TrEMBL record:
InterPro entries reported in the protein's UniProt record: AB_hydrolase_fold, Dienelactn_hydro
Entries under SUPFAM superfamilies matching the protein: alpha/beta-Hydrolases
Gene Ontology MF annotations: hydrolase activity
Protein name in UniProt: Dienelactone hydrolase domain-containing protein
C-alpha cells in the first residue's frame, strides 16, 4: 500500500542526549534515565520509515527516559535502508507549495520522492524486517530485560511491527513485550491483525489519517475493548490531525498539542500496565 503521508512532516530542532552502542548485533540509540536511577522498565521504540537515526525519534526517546526513568532503545531494524529525512521537505513542497517556484518545481520533487520512497518501502517490507525485530526482542528479554517490564512503541512503519509483536510471542515463558503503543500505524491488515493481539496495545490515530479511517478506528476500538482482561487495548482519535502527527508533525495541522498528548498517552499506558510486573 502506498502512503505518501508516511514521508511527510518536519525535522524537529534539538540535540539528542543519548548514546549509540551495539546490542544483539544491531546499532542502537540508547536513552538512559537522566535522574541516575536504575531503569524501572525498558522501552523499544520502533521508528517510522526514517529509521533509528531520525532526530525526532531520538528526542522522543530522551523524553521518555527523562519523564519516567525508562531505558529506551531505538534499534537499527532497517539495515541501512531507511528513507532520507530530506524527503520531508520535498513532500511538503508537493502537498502545500508556498511559492510559485515550489509549484513550478513540483515535478522534480515528485520524481525525487518516487526514486527514494519505493526502495525504502520495498526493502523494509514487514515480511523482511519483522524477523529481525522479533529476534532482537527475544535476545533483549533474555538479557537486559530478564527482570524488567518491556514496552514497545511504534510509529507509522513501526506501528505495524508493534501490532505483530502483540500477537503474544514468548521466550523462556515470558512475553516479548508487556504492553504496546502505536501512533498512526501503517500497512495494517484490518482487522485480522487486531483480532490476533493478546498483549494490550494503545492506539493514537488522527481523524484525517490516510491509513486508518475514522470508521475503521471505531471498529478497531470496539475490538480491543472487547478483549479479555489483561489484553484490553484502547484507541484514541485525535480530531484535526493526519498521518505522522505524533512524531513528525502534520502538514495539515502544525499544532504540536497532538504530539504532546500522544506522548502522554503512551507514558500513561506503560505506567498502568507495568505496575506490579515482576520477573
Amino acid at each position: 500500500m502506498s502512503c505518501p503521508e508516511c514521508f511527510s512532516g518536519a525535522v524537529h530542532e534539538g540535540t539528542p542526549t543519548g548514546t549509540v552502542t551495539k546490542l544483539h548485533g544491531l546499532d542502537v540509540y540508547v536513552a538512559e534515565p537522566s535522574s541516575g536511577n536504575p531503569p524501572k522498565a525498558i522501552i523499544v521504540l520502533i521508528p517510522d520509515i526514517f529509521g533509528w537515526t531520525f532526530v525526532n525519534l531520538q528526542l522522543m526517546a530522551d523524553s521518555f527516559a527523562k519523564k519516567k526513568d525508562y531505558r529506551v532503545y531505538i534499534p537499527e531494524f532497517m539495515n541501512g535502508n531507511a528513507a532520507p529525512p530530506s524527503m520531508l521537505e520535498s513532500l511538503q513542497k508537493v502537498i502545500v507549495p508556498k511559492t510559485w517556484y515550489e509549484t513550478f518545481s513540483k515535478p522534480y520533487h515528485i520524481l525525487w520522492l518516487l526514486v527514494t520512497a519505493f526502495p525504502a518501502i520495498y526493502l523494509n517490507r514487514p515480511g523482511r524486517t519483522f524477523p529481525i525485530v522479533k529476534s532482537f526482542m527475544e535476545s533483549l528479554r533474555q538479557n537486559e530485560a530478564a527482570h524488567l517490564p518491556v514496552g514497545v512503541t511504534g510509529y507509522c512503519w513501526g506501528g505495524k511491527h508493534t501490532v505483530l509483536l502483540a500477537e503474544g510471542f514468548t521466550v523462556d515463558s515470558k512475553p516479548l513485550m508487556d504492553a504496546g503503543f502505536t501512533a498512526h500505524p501503517s500497512f495494517l491488515s484490518l482487522f485480522g491483525e487486531i483480532e490476533k493481539m493478546t498483549v494490550p496495545v494503545s492506539f493514537a490515530i488522527g481523524d484525517k489519517d490516510n491509513q486508518v479511517s475514522p470508521t475503521q478506528a471505531k471498529e478497531l476500538e470496539k475490538i480491543v475493548l472487547n478483549k479479555p482482561d489483561g489484553q484490553k487495548g484502547e484507541c484514541r482519535v485525535y480530531a484535526g490531525y493526519g498521518h505522522g502527527f505524533a512524531c513528525r508533525g502534520d502538514v495539515l495541522n502544525d499544532d504540536p498539542k497532538g504530539a504532546v498528548e500522544a506522548e502522554d498517552q503512551a507514558l500513561a499506558w506503560f505506567e498502568k500496565h507495568f505496575e506490579g510486573i515482576k520477573y
